[in-house]
Amino acid sequence: MTGPAKIETTNQDSVEQGDCPLSVMDLTVAYHRKPVIWDVEFDLPAGSLVGIVGPNGAGKSTLLKAVMELVPRASGRVEVFGKPYHLSRRNVGYVPQRESVDWDFPVDALDVVTMGLYGQVGWGRPVRQKHRDLAMQALEHVGIADLAKRQISQLSGGQQQRTFLARALVQDADLYLMDEPFAAVDAATEKAIVEILRELKQRKKTAVVIHHDLQTVPAYFDYVVLLNMRVVAHGPVQEVFTPENLQKTYGGRLTLLDEVTEAMRRRERSL
Amino acid sequence: MAMLAVLQGWDWQFDGWIMVVGVLCATSTALLGNFLVLRRMSMLGDAVSHAVLPGLVAAFLISHSRSSLAMFVGAVIVGVLTAMFTEWIRRFGRVEESAAMGVVFTSLFALGLVMIVQADHVDLDADCVLYGAIDLTPMFTVNIGAYEVPQAAVVLSVVTLINAAFVLVCYKELKISSFDPSLAHSQGVRPAWMHYALMVLVAVTTVACFESVGNILVVAMLVVPPSAAFLLTHRLGLMIVLSVVIGAAGAILGHVGAFAIPRAFGMPSTSTAGMMSVALGGLFVLALLFAPQQGLVSRSIRRFVLSQQILRDDIVAYLYRAGERHGEAIAKRSDLITELFSSAVPMSLALRRLVRQDCIRDCGQQIELTKQGEKLGKALVRSHRLWESYLVEQAELDRSKIHDKAEQWEHFTGQALRDRLVDQTSSTGLDPHGTVIPAEPKSDDDGPPDAS
Amino acid sequence: MIWSDLWDVLLLRDYNTRVVLLGVALLGAASGLVGSFTLLRKRSLMGDALAHASLPGLVIAFMIAVAAGGDGKSMPLLLAGATMGGLAGVACILFLQRFTKLKQDATLGIVLSVFFGLGVVLLGITQKMDAGHSAGLETYIFGKTASMRRADGIMIAITALISILVTGVLFKELKLLCFDADFAGSRGLRVWLLDTILMVLVVMVTMVGLQAVGLVLMVAMLVIPAAAARFWTESIFRLALVSASIGLVGSVLGATASAVMADLPSGAMIVLACALLFAVSMFFGTQRGVLPRLWRRRQLNAKIARQHLLRGIYELSEAEFQDANPGHWVSLIDLLQKRSWNSKQLRRQIETAELVELVRYKTDQVALTSAGYAEAARLTRQHRLWELYLVHYADVATARVDRDADDIEHVLEHDVVEKLERLLDHDPIRIAVPSSPHAMEST
C-alpha cells in the first residue's frame, strides 16, 4: 500500500476530466494554525446525489467553503467541471444555510426564486413575465405556489427551505452545493426536498448535500463521502456506507450505529 | 386666519425653491438609502459627510479658490476613499464594519481639522457643514434659458436623475447583490462592482446635498425615509417609492414647519434643515406606530381584537359546558372572569358584543346562553372534542397534552374542517376523556357562522 | 525653539500643560477601556449616535436655565441636560432594536439624525430669541482642549475612575455579555441591565469627553483604541488593558504634539495619533495584524508543503524497498503523482528542502538525508497516529485533533498514545514508525 493519502476508493470512476462535476485533490485547509481538514481527495460522478456525512466539527461546511473559495486552502486543488471554481461559478447553485439569510429583506418567495433566473435575464434588463412564469412553475413544483407573494420571514422553516430549493431548480446549474437543507424542516418538506433531489438527478445534475441524519443516507443518496477531518471513505452508498466505515467516522457511538445498521437491514429486506 | 398670520412673510418664489431643493435632496438620497439600510450600512452617509473635510481643504489648497467644482471633486474623491478604506479595513483587518467606518471617518475628519489650520484663511464655515445653508440656496442662481434657477436645484436635479437611472437600470442587480452576494456571483452579477458603484453614488450624493442641507440632514434623508418605508411594506419596489414620497413629504413639512411652528408660539422661524430631520423623524414615528402590518399600534389592536374573539368563544363554550353539566347554561359574571383568566374590562366588552349578537342574555350578575349562543357553543365544544380525538388517534399524543392544543385550535375550526376531522377519527361519538361529542349544530337558519 | 517647548511639555513645567495632559490621558484610557466593550458588543458607533443625541438635551437645559432667570451657562446643568439627551437617545435605539425589525445601523442613524435635527431646531430658536446668550453652546460640539480647566480635569478623572471601577467589578459579567449575550441571558444574567450599565458608562465618558475634545473626536476615542487593540490580543482582559493603553498613549502623543506646535488643534492631533497607532496595529498586531497573519499563513503553507514532501518520499521508499532508510532514491515521477503539485512546485519544494539538507537531489530522483529521514519518520509516525486516533476516538476526536502540534504527546495523554502504538504492534516494518491505518486494514 502506498501512502495515507490514499483512501479506499471503491469507485474507480473514469470520468473525463471535463466531465467531473467536482474533483477535490489533496485538499488541506487550516484555520489559524490548525489544519481542520486534510488530504481530502475525491472525484464525484456526474449526475449523482452525494451526501457528505460526518460528525460535528468534521469540517463538512469548511469543505464546501473551500470548494467555493471562501476560505483559503493550505494545499491542494479543487476543480469544478475541470476548471477552478471561479471560472465555472455559473454552473454552480448554492443553497445557503438558513442562518446566513437575511429573512427580513423585503422580497417575497417569488422574488427569491426569480433571482435564480437573473443570469438568463441579462444585465440591466427587467424581469419579464416569462421569467416570472418559470419561477411560478418552480414554486408550484415544490408545492408552495399559493405562498408566492408572501414575504420570506412569514414562511415557515420548511416553506423557506422549499423556496430556496425552487430557486435551485430554476437556476439550471449543473452542480448544486447544499448546506444542510434538511436541518429543522418538517416531514412533508423533507419528502419534497428528496423529490427535488431525485428530479435534479434525473436531469443529470449533481447535488452535493451536507447531511446529518444517518438513517436516511441510504435512502436519499447514491454516493456518499464520509468525512472526519479527512475522508474516511467515499463511493456508492451500498459499498461505502458500511458499519465499519461509520465506526471509523463516528467512533464508538454504538447505539446510533446499531440504529443505522438496523435501518439499513430493514431497507434491504424491503427491497 | 391664524394660519395666514403664521405664514406671513412666506414667499412662494423664495420658499418654493427651498422646498424644491429639499425635495430633490430627499429624493436623491432616499433612492440610495434603501440599499444602504438593507445592506446594514446606514451610517455610511454620516461617515462620508464628516470625512470629506480634508477633501474640501485639499481642493482649496490646490486650486486656491472656493470654486464649487474643485471642492466638489475633492470631496467626492475623499468620500469614495472613505468607503474604500472602510471596506479594506473590514476585509483585510477583519474589523467589524461599523468600527472600521468609525476609525476611517474620524481620522479623516481630524486630518481635515489639522489641514484647515495650515490653510490659514480657508473660509470653511463649520456651521455650514453641520447645518447646511438651505435657507440661502435660492440666492445663488444660474440662468437656464430665460429662467433664473438656484444652482443647488440644478446640481441636485442632475444627481437625482443619475441616481434614479442607476436604481432603475440596476434594480435587479442591486437587489440580488444586496440579498445574496454569492448567488449574484453565480448569476454573473459582480456584487463588488455594485458595491463600489453604490459607494461612489452615495459619496457624490452626500457631497452634493450637504452643501445645501448640512451633513446631519443628509444622514436623516439617507436613513429615515427608507427605514420608515421598510416598516410599511414587504416589497422592495414599493419600499423605494414610499421612501421617496416620505422623504419629499418630510422636506416640505420641514420647511413649512420651520417657518410656521415657532411663529405660532411667537418666536422667529428656525433652522429649516433641522426641522426637516425632525419632520422625517415624525413621519418615521407615524410609520412605527401605524404601519398596517408591523406598526406597534396596529399590532396591539390586532392582538386585542383576536383576544376578544377568543374570549367570546370561551364564554360561549363555558356556558355550553355548564349547560351540559347542570342542565342550564348559566354562569356568574365573576365566575367567568376567574375561570377564563380574564379581567373586568375585556370581559364586559366581550359580553356586550355577545349580547348584541344575541348569543347571551345579560341578567345583571347572571349570564345566560340563548338558542343562538347554544348553537355556537355546540360547534366550539364539538371542534374541541373532535380535535382531542384526532390528536390521540392520529398523532398519538399523550392524553394530558391534548387539551391545550384543542383549546387553541377550536377557535379556528370551521364546519368543513370539522367534517374532515369526523372522517379521520373513529366514530364512537365520545372524546378521549369519555365525554359525548355534541352533534353538528343545524345550520338551517341564518345564525352566526360557527367559530370565527 | 521646538525642543525647549518639548522639554517644557514633557517635564510638565507649565500648570496648564499638566492639567491638559493629565486630563486627556485619563480620558483616553477611560474611553479606550469602555470602547473595548462596545466594540465587542458590536456597538462601536453608539457613541456617535448618543453624542449627537445629547444636543437637544443640552439646549433644553439651557432654555430651562434661562427661563429660570440664570444665564444658562452653568456647566453642571448643561452637562446634566446633555446626559439626559444622550440617555434618551440610547433608550430610543434600544427600543427600536427590540420592537422593530430594523437593524442596529439604521436605528443609530435614525436617532442620531432626528435628535440632532431637533437640537438644531431648538438652537435656532434660542439664538434668535436673545442673541449672544447662547453663542457658546455649539462650541460644545467642537470642544477646545487647550482651554481645559481644572474643573474639567477633575470631572474627567472622576469619570475615568468610575469606569475603571465598574468594568473591574463587573468584568466577568461584561465578558459574558460581549461573548454571547444569549448565553448570558440563559445563565440568569440580566442582559438589559448590563447593557444599560455599559451604555451609561459610554454616555458618561462621551459627555465628559465632548467638551474636552469635541464630538467627532470623542467618537474616535471610543472606536479607534479598541479597534487597534483587537489586533494584539484575543483575550478580553488584555484587550481592555491594551485598548486603554493605546487610548492613553495616543492622547498624550497628540496633546504633546499640539502643545509643541501651537497651531495644531489638540483634539485632532490626538485622533491622528490614535489613527497612527491603529495603522501600526493593523499591520503589525501580533494576533490579528495583517502582516503577522500573512506571515503565519505562509509559514503554515510552507510547513505543510514540506511535510507533504518528506512524507511522500518516505512512503514511496517504504513501499518500494519495504523500509524507508535514508539513501533510497525515489523517482520524481512517482512523487509527482502522490499529490496535487505540479512539477514546478515540486521542484521548488525539493530545492528549499535541499538547502536545509533534508533531501538530496539528482536529475529526476530524490532521497532523504539522515536528518531528513529522522524528520520524515517523525512526521509519518505523527500523521499515522493522528489517523489512528481519528479512527478509534472518532466521537471525541475533532475537538482535540491538533495535527500540526509539534508532538502528538503534547496534545494527547500518554496512555492514549501508548494504546495507539500498541494497536500497530503487528506492523511488519522494522522501523519505529507505525504503518498507515489504511495499509494496515488491507493486510
From TrEMBL, chain A:
Pfam families: ABC_tran (PF00005). InterPro entries: AAA+_ATPase, ABC_transporter-like_ATP-bd, Metal_Ion_Import_ABC, P-loop_NTPase. It comes from the Bacteria. Its EC number is 3.6.3.-. Keywords: ATP-binding, Hydrolase, Nucleotide-binding, Transport. Residues 22-254 form the ABC transporter domain. One of its GO terms (molecular function) is ATP hydrolysis activity. Gene3D superfamilies: P-loop containing nucleotide triphosphate hydrolases. Belongs to the ABC transporter superfamily. This is High-affinity zinc uptake system ATP-binding protein ZnuC. It comes from Stieleria bergensis. The gene is znuC.
Automatic annotation (TrEMBL), chain B:
It is found in: Cell membrane. Keywords: Cell membrane, Membrane, Transmembrane, Transmembrane helix, Transport. Residues 423-452 are annotated as: Disordered. One of its GO terms (biological process) is response to zinc ion. The chain crosses the membrane at residues 16-37, 44-62, 68-86, 98-117, 149-171, 240-261, 273-292. GO terms for cellular component: ATP-binding cassette (ABC) transporter complex. Pfam families: ABC-3 (PF00950), Fe_dep_repr_C (PF02742). Its main location: membrane. Coiled coil: none annotated. Residues 370-438 form the Iron dependent repressor metal binding and dimerisation domain. InterPro entries: ABC_BtuC-like, ABC_TroCD, Fe_dep_repressor, Fe_dep_repressor_sf, Iron_dep_repressor, WH-like_DNA-bd_sf. It comes from the Bacteria. It is a multi-pass membrane protein. GO terms for molecular function: DNA-binding transcription factor activity; protein dimerization activity; transition metal ion binding. Belongs to the ABC-3 integral membrane protein family. This is Manganese transport system membrane protein MntB. The gene is mntB_1.
TrEMBL record, chain C:
One of its GO terms (biological process) is transmembrane transport. It is a multi-pass membrane protein. SMART domains: HTH_DTXR. Keywords: Cell membrane, Membrane, Transmembrane, Transmembrane helix, Transport. Residues 369-426 form the Iron dependent repressor metal binding and dimerisation domain. It is found in: Cell membrane. This is Manganese transport system membrane protein MntB. It comes from Stieleria bergensis. The lineage of its organism: Bacteria, Pseudomonadati, Planctomycetota, Planctomycetia, Pirellulales.
